[in-house]
Design a protein that fits this description.
binds adenosine-5'-triphosphate; binds magnesium ion; 5-stranded mixed sheet; alpha+beta; Rossmann fold; BirA Bifunctional Protein, domain 2; 16 strands
Amino acid sequence: MITKPRGTEDVLPKDSKLWQHIEETARGVCERFGYKEIRTPVFEDTALFQRGVGDTTDVVQKEMYTFEDKGGRSLTLKPEGTATLVRSYIENSLYANPQPTKLSYIIPCFRYEKPQSGRLREFHQFGIECFGAESPATDAEVISLAHMFLKELGLTGIQLNINSIGCAVCKKEYNEKLRNYFEGYKDRLCPTCLERLEKNPMRIIDCKSEICSEIAKTAPKMIDYLCDDCSGHFESVKERLDNMGIDYVINPDIVRGLDYYTKTVFEFVSDALGAQSTVCGGGRYSGLVEELGGKPADGIGFAAGLERLVLVIKKQQPDACSLETASDLFVATMGDEAEKFAQKLIFELRNLGVSAEQDLCGRSLKAQMKYADKLGARNSIVIGDDEIVAQTAKLKNMKTGEAVDISLHAEVLAKKLEEVR
Ligand code: ATP
Ligand code: MG
């Protein structure tokens, strides 16, 4: 038997309502905030991620699904959304519209990671990006959108962590301090972090290895070295969050995955998950648009992991998982003529917006009624030769057993079903 690839999941019909609910909530919130959906390819030129995510990150160094196509091009299945959106923003000249450009997406992402709860090789992200706005108001708007999304999903026990990781100016001085600090632990750092020590010491703070993260605990914190511009920006973001009544804690240890992050970074963490507790992460970045060939423009955004949200919701709202919809009507039949009559009737009813079902497996009448029960149909009718002649049948409420005479004309039946819904 062929089974699904390691680290992938099937979303079965019993769960897809919950997925649709999460996606609809995301789209609804985006609409209110003026974020427009963008759809992009599942694979991109490998160089996009090498440059756009950064070649000192775990994602690029260890996790990408990269392959050569028959034309000899190196392609990579998207590990994240930001680099792709930057590419599209430049390639489609979206910067020529009134700025900022506000975009949202829901995408599958692929990362070759060690699969565990909340960590898959194919997973899904809902995210947004805002290009061309540098104001702290933008940071606050982006964070407030994520906050509203999580709140509308009814999640509890979520904490917003924010930090500032400075700009090119203040990062330079800080990176020197950090390098000096980690130099002292050179013999204990993991091989990947040893390399990062030269290229990008801040990455070490994000390392998942136990020893590196232990060492990083007492490392100097960027937040203590912010320049005036960066600290003013951070103060303003905090003030705006306070204004909107959005609670947060300052967490100097958040540095985030991308190489290009500047100033504000943030994460929403859930207390309902184990190790994989971050349900949403994001931040501001500058330099990325330019790095990918565009005119300089700031970006800020976030991505939320949908599988992790599903885990939290299933834990906190077990009923949300049984959002299955039941049919309005089950049409049971006796004999071939009745079955054909029923199919046409059901077709007309569905055309009028009614959800209706019939048996497709040749069941006996008794078995059909049992099946209708299993389906959770709200009403049923039984059609035999007499009903076809009379053009009427008994409409039975499956819960109460109450029955009324009803015409078999689709319009009349549909209207009645609407009344008793
Ligand atoms: P983590 O620290 O958990 O590895 P990350 O920093 O790699 O997360 P991002 O690149 O910021 O994550 O992606 C944003 C969100 O996507 C995460 O907060 C998480 O909810 C989700 N996510 C990331 N990687 C995975 C994965 N392998 N499986 C499921 N969800 C994931
Ligand atoms: Mg990761």
